[in-house]
Design goal:
- This protein has about 290 residues and is α/β, with parallel strands linked by helices.
- Helices cover about 20% and strands about 25% of the residues.
- It is built from five helices and 14 strands.
Length: about 290
C-alpha cells in the first residue's frame, strides 16, 4: 500500500515511526508541516527520522504530488486544506471523540473543560471539516490535576495504535468500507486559539489559573501575562491558601517565598514557580517586590 502522510508535531512523528516499524508492507511519503506558533513542531525530529530510515519526504511549502500515485492519504495534526484526494482516499486522525470537539485545539479545550474521557478519531475526509464518517476511535480516561504534556504523552500512543489498526482495516476491506455516520445531535465545535486565548485572567480563582497554566503549556507557547509592560510565560505554579485581604487587587504580588512571588487571584493565591521572558530566560526572581501581573 502506498501512503502519503501529511503530518505535524509529535503525534505525526509517532505515527510514521509506528507504521514504518509495523509488519505491514507500506510505501510512505511524508509531507512535513512547520508551525512557529508552538514551541516544538517536531519538524526537525521528523526530518531526522525520515533521513535515518530512507523515507522520502518534502516540506509543506515545497510539495507537489499526484494523488493518483497513492492509495490513501493520512492527515496527522495537519492544519491546512488537503486538495486533490477523494474523500474516501483521505483519512484524518483527530484528537477528540467525534462528533464532539470538531475543529481546532480539541485536546486543549477538552482538558480545560475537565472532560473525564478524551481520545482520537479516524475519519474519512468530508467537504466540511471533521464531519466525515468515523472509521474507528480510541479513548482514554483523564484524572485531574494533569497537564497537557502528560496527556499528550499518552495520546500519541493512541495515535500510533489507531493508525496501524486503520491501515490494516483498509488493506482488508479497501473501498468497501464506508465507516459510520456521525450523530449530529451530539456534535460540538472547538474554536481555534490565538495569543489572546493564552492570557491569564487574574480575576479567576487560583485553582482555575493553575489548571489553565497546566493545559496550555508545552508544546504550545504557555500561559501569558504582562509584567512591567512585557509579556512573560508562566509554566508552573502552585495554589497557596488564601489570606484575608482588605483591598483585594488580583495580579499584585503579596508575598515572596525564596525567589517565588505569590500573586493575589480573584480567589486564593498562586505561587509562580517557573516563568520565562520572551527571550526564553527565567523571569524569576522579580526585580521588584511591588510587581503587578496583568
Amino acid at each position: 500500500m502506498k501512503l502519503i502522510i501529511f503530518l505535524l508535531g509529535e503525534k505525526g512523528l509517532n505515527v510514521v515511526r509506528a507504521l514504518f516499524n509495523s509488519p505491514i508492507e507500506l510505501s510512505i511519503f511524508c509531507v512535513i508541516g512547520r508551525d512557529n506558533s508552538i514551541s516544538n513542531d517536531y519538524s526537525t525530529e521528523i526530518t531526522a527520522y525520515c533521513n535515518a530510515n530512507s523515507i522520502e519526504y518534502s516540506f509543506k511549502e515545497n510539495i507537489t504530488y499526484d494523488a493518483k500515485n497513492y492509495d490513501f492519504a493520512f492527515a496527522i495534526g495537519w492544519r491546512w486544506i488537503i486538495r486533490d484526494f477523494p474523500e474516501k482516499k483521505l483519512i484524518i486522525l483527530h484528537d477528540s471523540l467525534l462528533p464532539r470537539y470538531r475543529g481546532f485545539s480539541p485536546l486543549v479545550n477538552a482538558l480545560l473543560n475537565k472532560e473525564k474521557e478524551v481520545g482520537v478519531s479516524a475519519i474519512f475526509g468530508a467537504s466540511e471539516y471533521d464531519r466525515g464518517n468515523i472509521i474507528m476511535q480510541r479513548s482514554m480516561h483523564v484524572t485531574y490535576p494533569t497537564s497537557l504534556i502528560a496527556e499528550l504523552e499518552k495520546i500519541v500512543i493512541l495515535y500510533a495504535e489507531l493508525a496501524i489498526a486503520v491501515v490494516s482495516k483498509l488493506i482488508n476491506e479497501g473501498n468497501l468500507f464506508a465507516g459510520s455516520l456521525q450523530n449530529e445531535n451530539d456534535a460540538s465545535y472547538s474554536l481555534w486559539r490565538d495569543d489572546e486565548d493564552y492570557r491569564i485572567n487574574w480575576n479567576d480563582s487560583a485553582s482555575t489559573i493553575d489548571h489553565f497554566i497546566n493545559c496550555v503549556g508545552h508544546p504550545y507557547l504557555g500561559a501569558a501575562t504582562k509584567l512591567n509592560g512585557k509579556i512573560i510565560r508562566i509554566f508552573q505554579a502552585k495554589v497557596i491558601d488564601d489570606v484575608k485581604i482588605e483591598n483585594r487587587s488580583p495580579g499584585k504580588v503579596i508575598f515572596m517565598k525564596d525567589e517565588f512571588p505569590i500573586v493575589v487571584c480573584g480567589q486564593g493565591l498562586l505561587m509562580i514557580k517557573n516563568a520565562k521572558n520572551g527571550d526564553g530566560q527565567s523571569a524569576l526572581p522579580l526585580n521588584s517586590f511591588r510587581s503587578r501581573f496583568k
